[in-house]
Amino acid sequence: MTTYYTKDHEWIAVEGDTGTVGITDYAQGQLGDITFVDLPEVGNAVKQGEAPCVVDSVKAASDVYAPVSGEVSDVNEALGDAPELVNTEPESGGWLFRLTLADAGQLGALMDRATYDEYVKGL
Amino acid sequence: MSADDASIEANDNFDESPLEPEVLPVDAWHRAHGARMVEFAGYWMPVQYEGIIAEHLWTRDHAGLFDVSHMGQLMVSGEGAAEALEALLPGDISALKPGRQRYSLLLDEAGGILDDLMVTNRDDHYYLVVNGVTKWDDIAHLREHLPDEVTLNLLDEHGLLALQGPESAAALGSLGLRPAFDGMPEVTDLRFMQASAYYRGDVPLGVSRSGYSGEDGYEISVPAQDIAALADALCARPEVKPTGLGARDSLRLEAGLPLYGHDLSPETDPVSAGLGFAISKRRRAEGGFMGAEPVLAALVNGTPTTRVGLAVQGRQAAREGALVFSGDHPVGRVTSGGFSPSLNHPIAMAYVATTHAPEGTALTIDVRGKRLPARVVSMPFVPHRYFR
């Protein structure tokens, strides 16, 4: 499994043709307390850069962009009762949705962990 | 990921100034206490320390300390100051006794709200606390309209701390404040909307029992160089934690208290805003304040729109700007909204057509193309617990 990162602070962990998407620890720290996650519907096709998911914090609603194109294959139902998982386990139990990748080639433009960490340091 | 809705961080409609934000007198104190600083009202302000929900709930149960030094503290003094203020405010200022505080409004000729504020009779002058975003406009408005013999001073060498929550009196009462004048009440004996002067050591403090959270608490005017020591002394108490603007906003929303620039503006008037209580009986009878004619007419005839509280079903928040519907018909707009930490569901304030304003009216709110069911409820959403 390889994890990639976007400049908008999403991560996507890829295994075979499935990618699991969430927001980074940095992102959840910026948003503060998450109170609701508006998840996409399984079966929906999403294009890279579209926002199939919205994360609500006390302060604001924030779009979560699809790091790559694909079809939504699963969503994290646990967030319905426990949206705070995005705060407490942003890069594991607080994952948002899974995609069946349409074009694995799109992953090439994303960052690896070390590059992302450097990117965040510069913010 | 990107924030795109109304938020304290990203969206301050009334601050379009290209100037660099100012820093609070105790900017370093906030940063040392782990605050995340954001730009608000032209200042770098602490939006949160440990987290908005934790700070919010702590304030409801114990006491939160807020630095609101961005707000404008004004002194109005001189012969005829009460009458001069009454020409601009709809409150009964001449009946306001020394040591008493009142909520009032600055109105324009059309009855639009220029600002909401607190007025205190400090015996030898009136002390006004106005919003940070509007303070410079307020000062210009007051200077333009106050007669020459009335003096306006901005207390820009003073900070303002708010201590809010049920354990506020225990905390402030432990600091050894002594009344500045014999026979004046101890700080713990002040009642809601009473104010008095104190000394802590040789530091003069102006203290009122009031605030913006719906809880018991105080607002403390303190010389800028003494803010940090006072904040340290309060936060050394086990019941007090520093609390940011984020929780201040969620607390005031639950308390049903409007926020200027969002729920109040020159396009809103006191009657549709539900602030008729700020127009005293005598002023209703006599008029004579700026905007009196349209405002008094609205008191008699009603207004086409009314500010209401909405309890939103589910967990998704409706925020400022969201349209409110009855069936397929748009009937209003949300002016502030968010998740209520105390109630554990979203709440909002909206202006809706008065025909749809009665308590219990079922409405929907458009949030990103979804219609969230909502119901008109009476405000405050969370009962006030003032010390009366």
Give an overview in words:
Chain A has helices at residues 25-31, 85-88, 113-121, and strands at residues 2-5, 10-15, 18-23, 34-38, 45-46, 53-57, 61-64, 70-75, 97-101. Chain A has 123 residues and is α+β, with helices and mostly antiparallel strands. Chain A has one domain (2-118): RNA polymerase II/Efflux pump adaptor protein, barrel-sandwich hybrid domain (OB fold (Dihydrolipoamide Acetyltransferase, E2P)). In chain A, a hairpin with a 3-residue loop joins strand 6 (53-57) and strand 7 (61-64). The longest helix of chain A has 9 residues, at 113-121. Residues 4-16 of chain B have low confidence and may be disordered. Chain B is α+β, with helices and mostly antiparallel strands. The relative contact order of chain B is 0.15. In chain B, strands 12-13-14-15-11-5-16 form a 7-stranded mixed beta sheet. In chain B, strands 17-20-19-18-21-22 form a 6-stranded antiparallel β-barrel. Chain B starts with a strand and ends in an 11-residue tail after the last strand. In chain B, 19% of the residues lie in helices and 33% in strands. Chain B contains 9 helices and 22 strands. Chain B is globular, with a radius of gyration of 21 Å. Among the domains of chain B are: 22-68 and 157-254, Probable tRNA modification gtpase trme, domain 1 (Gyrase A, domain 2, 2-Layer Sandwich); 304-388, Beta Barrel (Elongation Factor Tu (Ef-tu), domain 3), CATH 2.40.30. Chain A binds chain B through residues 8-10, 23, 27, 31-33, 35-36, 38, 54-56, 58-65, 83, and chain B through 1-10, 47-48, 51-54, 246, 250, 314-317, 319, 338-339, 341, 346, 368. Strand 7 (61-64) of chain A pairs antiparallel with strand 1 of chain B, so a sheet runs across the interface.
